[in-house]
Amino acid sequence: MTLSVGVLLSGGGSNLQSIVDHIDEGFLEARIRVVLSNEPKAGGLARAQKHRIQTSVLDHRSYSSREEHDSALLKVLQAEGVEVVCLAGYMRLLGKSLVRAYPGRILNIHPALLPSFPGLDAQQQAADYGVRISGATVHFVDEFLDHGPIIIQGAVPAYPGEGRDDLARRILTLEHRIYPQALQWLARDRLRLTDGRVHLLPDKERSVKGSRSQPLLVNPPLEEGF
Ligand code: GRF
Fold first, then answer.
1. Predicted TM-score of the model (pTM)
2. How many Å apart are CA 7 and CA 50, to the nearest integer?
C-alpha cells in the first residue's frame, strides 16, 4: 500500500529529505501529500518545493490559540488525504484534538534514547550529562512531549571531550535511516500497538533481512576477556 504522508516541520528538513530519498529509491512505499511548516523561513519548505511537493505555511503566531492553529493544520491534512503524520523537527507540541484525529497515525523522531532527555536540544542535554551512548527514537505521538510508544531506536557512542555538534551529527545520520524504516513498516501494515507497546510483524510477502551486522554497542569498548 502506498502510504499518504503529511510532514510537519519547523527547520532545515534533513529528515524530510531522507524520507523523500527513500521513496525515490524505491525503499519506502509512501507519497508525501503535503509539507506543513509553522515557520515561514524553514529550510524544509525549499527542499519540498524542489521535489514538487505541496507546501503550506501556517504561522502559529497568526492564531490566537494552539487549538486554532492545530485545527487549521488538521484541515489541510484532511483536505490532502493524509493518512499518517510525520513530525520531522516540528518544534511545537500537538494539542489533544489533533492527536485524537490521527490515533496511532502520528510519528515523531527525537534525537535521544527516550525516555532520556526529552525536550529541547536533547543532544546538548546528553553531552552535558556525559552519557557514553546516546541515539535517536521514532515513536508514536501522544499528548505529552516526546512521549508515546516506541517503534525503533538506534544508538551511537558519545565521546568525552567532543562537542554537542559532533554527537548531533552522528545521531542525525542515524535518524535518516530509522525514520524511513519506521514508515516503511507502517506502509506494509507491520506495526501493531497493544497495551502501549509496539510489535513488529514479519513481512508476509517477502523475507527481509537485517541490512548490516548489528553488534552490541558498548562504549567505551569492552576489553579482551569480557
Ligand atoms: C532532528 O534532530 C529531529 O530529531 C528533531 O529535530 C531535528 C530536525 O532536523 N526532532 P531536520 O530539520 O530534519 O534536519
1. 0.94
2. 15
Asked if 158 and 126 count as a contact pair (C-beta separation under 8 A), the reply is yes
- 8 Å CB contact between 132 and 219: yes
pLDDT tens-digit map of 180-200: 999 999 999 999 999 999 999
Q: Is 170 in the pocket of ligand 1 (CB under 6 A)?
A: no
The residues assigned a catalytic role are 110
Contact predicate 36/6, CB 8 Å: yes
Alpha carbon distance 121, 99 (integer Å): 23
Alpha-carbon distance of 19 to 27, in angstroms, equals 10
Domains belonging to the chain, first-starting first, are 1-103 (3.40.50.170), 110-226 (3.40.50.170)
